[in-house]
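Entry for adenosine-5'-diphosphate complex. Fields follow.
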Amino acid sequence: MALNVIMLGPPGAGKGTQAERFAHGRGIPKISTGEILRRAVEEGTEIGVRVKATMDRGELVNDELISGIVRERLEKADARSGFILDGFPRTVAQAEALDLMIGDRGSLLVIDIVVPETELVRRLASRMICADCGANAGEAAEPGLALADANTHPDHCRRCGGQLVQRADDTNGVVRERLKVYHCQTEPLVEYYRRRPTFRSVDGAQSPDNVAADLATAVDSAHLVAMAPGGGVPR
Ligand code: ADP
């Protein structure tokens, strides 16, 4: 049965890094709405032009627009056997749209990455990404490489060698706005999903390797429940 994974958790929880590792390890695509939108802004597409100011303010883009992007992406062949979504859904309206997209594709496995607020602010203020390929500086070039290896070439991306820069929306005021938006609009999703038998929480305030191990265990246990007769219902 398809491995349909979504990750909840505040900005800075490590969702992107963990999703990348998990996707690579399981041979499924990682679909990051933040990356898709940042690429659209960089390329100056029609969507990019529409969302730039909203993203720069740290606010969420329109539910229908982002749900449409995800719907199209999930229809591609590589997502048939599963996917891990990073950054979607972020509102209850998006979660409802996703339930419709999933339809009879199996159950959603929902992983909530939990990190205390003080740790989030610290992480976001020092986060760097690659100007060329968009990789997070903390992401290992190959799964299994320790985060500490990032210190060997601190100015350059280990995936493509590009220059590392601070994300436009990682500056102080915008970080606070993104955390506020998270509490108001995205945290209610935990309640939306919590009662499902395929919901799991993972402690995100550990080393990346330990979070990855706990994430794998959580997904596998939720997947087992989903495969049991009637297990994944209600989705
Ligand atoms: P973070 O690292 O803060 O979790 P992302 O990289 O996922 O942020 O997203 C960056 C920005 O892109 C968000 O602040 C928001 O403006 C926009 N965005 C990404 N995903 C969504 C979504 N599902 N709904 C609305 N806006 C989104």
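NOTE: Residues 140-151 have pLDDT under 50 and may be disordered.
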